[in-house]
Amino acid sequence: MSPSTTTAPLWQRLLLRRLKFLGWLLALLTVVLGGSYVFAPQWLVQANTARQALAAHVEKRSVLAGDTTWSYYAGGDGPAIVLLHGFGTDKTVWLDVAGQLTAHFHLVIPDLPGWGESSRGAAADYSIEAQAARLHTFVQAIGVRDFVLVGHGTGAAVAAVYAAEYPQAVRELALLDAYGLQTTHSAFSDATASRQLFVYDDRAGLARANTLLYTRPPALHGRLADARIRRNQADRAFIEDALHRLRQPAQQLVVQARLATLELPVLGLWCHADTVIDRSALDSLRNGLTHAATISTSTVNGCKHLPMLEKPVETAQILTGFALSH
Questions:
Q1: Domain of 194: which CATH number?
Q2: Which DSSP string corresponds to 93-105?
Q3: End-to-end distance of the chain based on CA atoms, in angstroms?
Q4: pLDDT digits (tens, 9 = 90+) for 217-243
């Protein structure tokens, strides 16, 4: 030990030790984060998702219901709202909206069977009607009753079919950019268009899909984009089978056929520039709801097909107003 170190004041020696410790800690974090980015980018994605869930005041839970082990977020106090994601996504798409809602509502946000962290059966039926039946076993298992049901895309179709089949369970129904309605254009009805949206093998393909889904596509750099691509490739058989099912005529109008049976308050919300499911479907929704208690419609500017991701504050405000108005 040098004389200068031994003769230095105590506070200087303590400060030096602390700086050395912080230096080693910073170096360790650099190695860990750098290694994660290169070798396991999915860890960084999971860490960011955990941060979002914490900020939104929801926690991840799981429950076995029927043939599915469901993974879901739950949190917040107040009237219950169940939020359903659309095709090719999972429960995490709602986290930004959840952060706006948990102060006033109790949220339940599941991964629909076959998607995200919920289980998937190799030979199971994942039609809209089958998913609605599974949803009933799920809400019964967790004890949620008299709830507001919100769905996006194909999740909106599941929500509408559920509300038609189990009207006693749902207080209000909100459909965002919903699949299953009569419309002038739906990418789901065309094999090429649907593959461009949901199937990709490289960064160029992922970028093309994001351009179709977002007004301002999110930046996914390098290895983070590669992690998304690998996940898509791993799910390829399931995705293509599900897309094939959705192109069947009965599935394409699965909501339209049930609109006249819905008697509860209904909200239709659409991105003004939706290129996946044209907003002409909003007119079909409005005209088909011949027995609904009330009909509310809203369009949101600045988004294409994912209002909860591109316009989370506006989406949360519209849902809050709808849920509290009845």
A1: 3.40.50.1820
A2: GGHHHHHHHTTTS
A3: 76
A4: 988 777 789 989 999 999 999 999 999
